[in-house]
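LOG
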Amino acid sequence: MSTPDPQVTGAVFGPEWVPGPDGMLRRRAARVILLDEHDRVLLVRGHDVDAPDRSWWFTVGGGIDAGEDARTAAVREVREETGIVLAPDDLVGPVYTRCALFDFAARTCRQDEELFVARVRSTDLALSADGWTDVERDVLDELVWWNLDDLSRVTIEVFPAGLAGLVRDVLVWDGTTRHLGLARE
C-alpha cells in the first residue's frame, strides 16, 4: 500500500482519522437515526470525491473528536449537518453498533460506529447546511425526510444496508444495543 500524500489526506480526512497498524485509516463515529412525528427518517445523500457518479444515502453523523464521547459527538454532528439542536439526553441508545469498511477518496477506511435514535418534529425545523465543512460541501448533496416504505424501494445504496428495517426495529426500542457486525460498503 502506498503512503498517502498528507496534504491530500488532511484536506479530505480530518484529524480523527488515524492510520491503524495495517495502514488503513480508521476512526470512531457517532450516527443518529433522526425520526420525525411521522416516523420518517432524515438522511443525507452524498458521493465520493473520486467517484462523483456514485451516490448513496446515509444517516446523519460523523467522527468522534478527541475528548468527546459518542453522545456529545452525535449531538454536535446533528447540529453541524442539519442545523437541528439536540441535547445528549434527547438521544436513545446506542441502539446499534457496527464496523464499516468503505472506499472514499481512493482510500479504504474503517469506521466503528455507535448509532442513536432521536425524535424531532419536522414541522418545527428548518434544515440547514450552514455547519458543513468545505469537504462536506464538496461531497454532500442533500438532506431528505424518507418514509420507510419509500426508503425500502430506493435504487441507490443506503447505509447501513437494510436501514428501513433497522429503523422499524427501533421505533419502540427494547433497550438492547444490537451489534450489526462488519459491513463492506
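LOG (cont.) second protein
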Amino acid sequence: MISTRRRIGEGRPARSPRLIASAALGAAVVLGATGCTFLTPQSTTIQYSAAEGVNVFDSGPLEVRNAFIVADETGAVGNFVAAVVNPTDTAHTLVVELGEGSTIDLELRVPARTTISLGADGEEPLLVEGLDTPPGANIPGYFQSGDAEGMLLAVPVLDGELDYLAPLVPRD
C-alpha cells in the first residue's frame, strides 16, 4: 500500500547552516553595536563648561557662569572674570574665596533679576591681589550665595596671550 501522507519537513528545502550562521552573526553585531548605550552615560546629559572658565552649579540662588582669572605674567595679580545671574526677585551677595585656606575674599552684590558680566558689557573685572598662581594653573575657588552651603571648584588662571583676553590682564 502506498501512503499519500507527507512526512514533516518533506518537500521544503533544507535550511543552510550558512544562512543560520549569517543570521546569528548579524543579530550579534546589531546587539553589540547598540548595547554600549546601556552601559555608558549619554554625553549630552553631562554638565560641563564649554568655555575657558568654570560654571558653578548649586552654589545658591545666584548662577555663576564661565568664571576664570586672567593674571599677569608673574601670577601675582589677576582679574576675576565671570557672569553672575540673579534669577530671583530679591538681591543676593555672591561670596568668592580663592586660594588654599581662602586667602582672597571677594563679594559682589547682585540686584534682583539682573546679570552682571564682570569683564564684559562695561563691567570691570574684580581685581585679585596676592594671587600667587601662575597662568596655566588652577586655584581653588569656593562660591556661595544665599543660604546654600556653597561649592568648591578649581578656577583656571589664564594669561593674556589670546586677543580677547589681553584687555583683561591687570595693568600697573
